[in-house]
Design goal:
The protein has 81 residues and is α+β, with helices and mostly antiparallel strands. It is built from 2 helices and 3 strands, in the order H-E-H-E-E.
């Protein structure tokens, strides 16, 4: 006899355990892509505005387009109740 596609009892057991399972951390990401001077300048302005420290950004990484770089900022998402 084949196994049914949907097993209500098994599904219910899984849904009861959802709250007890550790959740993966969630991240926000900001990516800047452009000319090196523009990317560096934007990072500096975001630092001056108190949004992100310069050290929190990745190094400037060349893209496939000549004269273009990218930098990534990744932070844990703040979840408020």
């Amino acid at each position: 006899m084949s196994k049914p596609l949907f097993n209500a009892e098994e599904s219910l057991k899984q849904s009861e355990n959802i709250g007890s399972q550790p959740s993966k951390p969630l991240y926000n990401r900001m990516i800047l892509v452009g000319a090196p001077d523009w990317v560096s300048g934007t990072i500096a302005r975001l630092h001056s505005a108190g949004i992100a420290h310069v050290r929190d950004w990745s190094r400037l990484v060349p893209t496939q387009h000549p004269g273009e770089v990218m930098s990534l900022l990744q932070r844990l998402r703040c979840i408020s109740d």
